[in-house]
Design a protein that fits this description.
Blueprint lengths: L9 H11 L26 H8 L1 H21 L5 H20 L9
Helix pairs in contact: 3-4
């Protein structure tokens, strides 16, 4: 009886497997396209909109810092009274409510 289970290396098995898979048709291979977004402003008429667009990261960062400051004060500052902590918690909840109402997610920016 012939031995059907010949030991082969992983590279031999991979090479045999690769031979069995036909290459994709040439017309289906597409190059990856870069996504671009171009904002145009008519300056000086659109100066306010231009400033908002170009300073959006800074605005986001200020909101992030404020949220983190409130979180830190609520969680770690033992010198505050319960009344102060409750007020800070209410301010943070209101702040986050404003963000949600305006579809702003501080955690979606990387």
């Amino acid at each position: 009886m012939k031995n059907f289970f010949k030991r082969r290396t992983l590279s031999e098995v991979s090479a045999d497997f690769a031979k069995k898979i036909p290459p994709p048709p040439k017309n289906t291979i597409k190059r990856k396209r870069e996504m671009k977004a171009i904002l145009e402003f008519n300056l000086p008429e659109d100066k306010v909109d231009f400033d908002l667009a170009t300073k959006a990261y800074n605005l986001w960062h200020v909101c992030w810092q404020m949220d983190q400051y409130l979180r830190k004060e609520i969680k770690y500052n033992d010198d505050r009274s319960k009344k102060e902590l409750k007020l800070l918690q209410e301010v943070r909840e209101e702040f986050n409510g404003f963000m949600i109402e305006n579809n702003i997610d501080l955690h979606s920016v990387e």
